[in-house]
């Protein structure tokens, strides 16, 4: 079914910017779809990449546009500590550099190259490890990190400091960061100085900052699950393609 949405913001906005903000695709992808004649506003084809959509108008991506977006490349990586998820600073190693033939786990129809614009969908900071998705699929990105997503993420976290029931209670529903109260979290003690966090949001260095707020210090942070997608037996430093079935299950699970 073609993607259809009414634009209800008070001010006109460029189509490519709105699609990117909505998590449908990147601006570059939106411009490519417009160039192919696959974007329509109120039934009229959009031919200008700078076209703005007006309040009350309805934008439609036809079935061919949906097919192009749904066949975009997505990969699963077991990110090691010391590797950055996105754009690296000098001397840092980005996760995309792990996407080599030698590091492939299993089979893939293609090895990502410079033509693929893979971006992290839910970052892991450089000092954290575990499940990381890189994708050029805007629909998938919206499903995982969009403002309406209901996907949770699971982490195993090793800490130092005394763990008490009071601290666990605060971690579950009593922490504010940057002046905003966090959504309730599931936090349980699962081993010697090890906590399991299950979150439905992903603020910058959130778990580390939550721990610091109650007098704990994170020494190891390991993401094991995003929604229905498990890290499983994927070895550290290796990658594999995301399957169509996994993509569909992530999108389905993200809906309220």
TrEMBL record:
Protein name: Dual-specificity RNA pseudouridine synthase RluF
Domain RNA-binding S4 per the UniProt entry, residue ranges: 13-81
The species this protein was found in: Phenylobacterium koreense
InterPro entries (UniProt xref): PsdUridine_s_RsuA/RluB/E/F_cat, PsdUridine_synth_cat_dom_sf, PsdUridine_synth_RsuA/RluA, PsdUridine_synth_RsuA/RluB/E/F, RsuA_PseudoU_synthase, S4_RNA-bd, S4_RNA-bd_sf, TruA/RsuA/RluB/E/F_N
GO molecular function: 23S rRNA pseudouridine(2604) synthase activity
Catalytic activity: uridine(2604) in 23S rRNA = pseudouridine(2604) in 23S rRNA; uridine(35) in tRNA(Tyr) = pseudouridine(35) in tRNA(Tyr); a uridine in RNA = a pseudouridine in RNA
Xref: SUPFAM superfamilies: Alpha-L RNA-binding motif, Pseudouridine synthase
EC assignment: 5.4.99.21
PANTHER family attached to this UniProt entry: PSEUDOURIDINE SYNTHASE FAMILY PROTEIN-RELATED (PTHR47683), RNA-BINDING S4 DOMAIN-CONTAINING PROTEIN (PTHR47683:SF2)
Assigned keywords, A-Z: Isomerase, RNA-binding
């Amino acid at each position: 079914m073609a993607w259809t949405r009414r634009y209800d913001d008070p001010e006109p906005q460029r189509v490519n910017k709105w699609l990117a903000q909505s998590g449908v695709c990147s601006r570059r992808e939106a411009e490519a779809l417009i160039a192919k004649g696959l974007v329509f506003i109120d039934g009229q084809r959009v031919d200008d990449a700078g076209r703005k959509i007006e309040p009350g108008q309805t934008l439609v991506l036809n079935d061919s546009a949906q097919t192009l977006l749904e066949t975009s490349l997505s990969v699963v990586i077991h990110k090691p500590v010391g590797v950055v998820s996105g754009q690296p600073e000098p001397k840092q190693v980005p996760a995309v550099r792990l996407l080599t033939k030698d590091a492939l786990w299993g089979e893939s129809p293609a090895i990502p190259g410079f033509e693929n614009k893979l971006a992290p969908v839910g970052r892991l900071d450089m000092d954290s490890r575990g499940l990381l998705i890189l994708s050029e699929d805007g629909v998938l990105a919206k499903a995982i990190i969009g403002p309406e997503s209901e996907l949770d993420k699971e982490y195993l976290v090793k800490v130092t400091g005394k763990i008490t029931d009071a601290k666990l209670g605060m971690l579950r529903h009593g922490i504010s960061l940057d002046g905003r109260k966090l959504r309730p979290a599931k936090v349980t003690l699962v081993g010697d100085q090890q906590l399991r966090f299950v979150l439905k949001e992903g603020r910058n260095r959130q778990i580390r900052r939550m721990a610091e707020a109650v007098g704990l210090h994170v020494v190891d942070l390991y993401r094991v699950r995003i929604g229905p997608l498990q890290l499983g037996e994927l070895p550290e430093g290796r990658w594999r393609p995301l399957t169509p079935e996994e993509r569909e299950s992530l999108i389905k699970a993200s809906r309220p």
